[in-house]
Amino acid sequence: MIKLVSFTAAVCWGPDEPFKIEEIEVEPPRALEIRVRMICASLCHSDIIVWVTVQPLYPRILGHEGVGVVESVGEGVIDLKQGDTIIPTFIGECGECINCLSGKTNICFKHPMLIDGLMPDKTSRLSVGGEKLYHMFTCGTWSEYMVLSVAYAVKVDASLPPAHASLLSCGFSTGYGGPWKEAKVEMGSTAAVFGLGGVGIGAIAGAKMMGASRIIGVDINNKKKEKAEFFGMTDFVNPIEVGKSASEAIKEMTGGLGVDYSFECSGVEVLLNEAVAATVPGRGMTISIGTGVDVSFKMFQLAMNKTLRGTLFGGIRPRLDLPTLIQKSLNKVFMQTYH
Length: 339
What we know:
CATH superfamily of the largest domain: Medium-chain alcohol dehydrogenases, catalytic domain
Order of helices and strands: EEEHEEEHEEEEEHHEHEHEHHEHEEHH
Number of strands: 17
Mean pLDDT: 92
Strand order of the largest sheet: 14-13-12-15-16-17
């Protein structure tokens, strides 16, 4: 008989329904699993999409960004121990499958993104009132405790501020990886970032780190301008204020050519076409980072020898690349570089 321990969590009972703080039951970890006491959790646009539109799996605990402390470990866990601080990841990295060995992608065949709201073995460690609880991707961070496969956990230094660690588990890292891992932005190139939320700020920081000479941010919220400038944005476009499309404004700012790279980080359907249109014909590249819905795309843009590339987690490999960002954050590199 598996002993259940009671904690509280924000439980979603249906699309668009308000979350309810419920007492839930959390099983101890099984083999190659850890049970984690959550310290901090973030809200990501992907959580909203899943809540209202994707896969009606209820009751459900959402949240996939967060940081916590290992409370207990299951059989066979050797790389983590009780008391370690970890962040969850929504993809894994086995280092052995053909994709991992290629060095060209972060899509691991052995530890893929899970979208059925269950553990890798297709069961749940969570329940509410005796009813099975689903979670988001590999876990549900909007809970006091959660159980996680060690394949989707990365250890972090306990001195890293929890809010920073939480954002590194998805949002900021996803944006940062776009220019770094996917586009491989060249020194002196130009870039545009559509949407200046957590992902967009990460994309700006990544483009700056790669040496982009001009980084144009696009948003309709002027309050985001100051923070984006702090991380490296050189120009700002609010399409509503300038009275023209973002792509038109960007072309005017770049001598009619457009930018070398654009990063769509908003998830707003119409902006993917704008992001592609804003790039220079013949070699422009657009990385679709934030789009989470089906879009109607103008294919003639690609006929101009432009490239549109999708990405998951910004191309970041959890075990090989995340430690680099964690160390940069610990060293306050982002603040020192852009202050």
